[in-house]
UniProtKB/TrEMBL annotation:
Keywords: Kinase, Transferase. GO terms for cellular component: plasma membrane. Coiled coil: none annotated. This is Diacylglycerol kinase. The lineage of its organism: Bacteria, Bacillati, Actinomycetota, Actinomycetes, Streptosporangiales.
């Protein structure tokens, strides 16, 4: 087996030492070529190279943004040219990898991937898709309209200034934006699911492809605990943002059971094949932790059995 190892040197926890250990472990079982990403979108281009040069496997070592690029690169290829894919955790949250059940430690995750390769274990997961130019984009675990996208945008600005994207940075920015009214002053969003009345005057809307939505350090955050890779998409939206209601919703998100399907101050939709989110004016939007600019409308659909992965 020939593998192309794609490493992101800017990923939060992907150190040169851990990268070397992982590559040596992989090379004990297969022929491995290593390449490091140099700019946004580079991982997607490298997947094209892997297909052209006949690699059997692509292994990524980075955060959720790297995973998203690789996944979109793989799915842009004809089905017969798609290499196998294995994702290793090198970012600050690593939601997709951890949701697959792989260890959060990259060396332990490498061991689990090698065991899966030996046993022939493969997993096929559903993905979300948004419309847009050049065929749109796939996302692996979440998309967000409003507050969380503003958090992602600000974290990206801080990273450009040299700060590391740690859980503490995300928490500090989220709290700062909330206290400044970033979550609570703009009920401009609506969710439109075919066959149902539209729901308007929403402050924040989150779309998930699995649970958890994210991690606060080791703790899973679960606004949509029924969401699964094997099902269509779930949606969570805040309808009220007063202090007591918001604190109660956040408490439930951090609980073992997550947020119930119904309750005060929020709405949920479960297992939706397609829907549209609109805003009365452009608002921040993100997928898989990557800020995609301000949008007024995004069309979503679930793509069953979209990705085959080693796990």
């Amino acid at each position: 087996m020939r593998a192309l190892f794609i490493g992101n040197p800017q990923a939060t926890t992907a150190t040169p030492r851990s990268r070397d250990v992982i590559v040596r472990a992989l090379a004990s079982d297969m022929a491995v070529d290593t390449v490091l990403t140099e700019y946004r979108g580079h991982a997607r281009e490298l997947v094209q190279r892997a297909a052209e040069e006949g690699y059997d496997l692509v292994v990524s070592f980075g955060g959720d943004g790297t995973v998203n690029e690789v996944v979109n690169g793989i799915l842009a290829l004809p089905a017969k040219q798609r290499p196998l894919y294995a994702a290793l955790p090198g970012g600050s949250a690593n939601v997709f990898v951890r949701a697959l059940g792989l260890p959060a430690n990259p060396v332990e995750a490498t061991g689990a991937v090698l065991e899966a390769l030996h046993s022939g274990s493969r997993r096929t997961v559903n993905l979300g898709h948004i419309d847009g130019p050049d065929g749109g984009r796939y996302f692996t675990f979440c998309a967000g309209f409003g507050w969380d996208a503003e958090v992602v945008h600000e974290v990206e600005r801080q990273r450009q200034r040299g700060r590391r994207a740690t859980p503490a940075l995300y928490t500090a920015i989220a709290l700062s934006l909330f206290l400044r009214g970033g979550m609570g002053g703009d009920p401009s969003l609506s969710v439109e699911v075919p066959g149902r009345p539209p729901v308007r005057n929403l402050f924040f809307v989150l779309v998930t492809n699995t649970t958890p939505w994210t991690y606060a350090g080791p703790s899973p955050v679960q606004p949509t605990p029924r969401s699964r890779f094997e099902l269509d998409l779930d949606v969570f939206a805040l309808t009220r943002v007063d202090t007591i209601t918001t604190a109660n919703v956040l408490r439930m998100m951090f609980s073992a059971k997550g947020v119930p399907p119904r309750g005060r101050g929020y709405r949920t939709w479960h297992n939706c094949a397609e829907f549209t989110i609109r805003s009365q004016h452009p608002r921040p939007f993100q997928i898989d932790g990557e800020y995609l600019g301000h949008r007024q409308q995004v069309n979503f659909r679930s793509v069953p059995k979209a990705l085959r992965i080693v796990a």
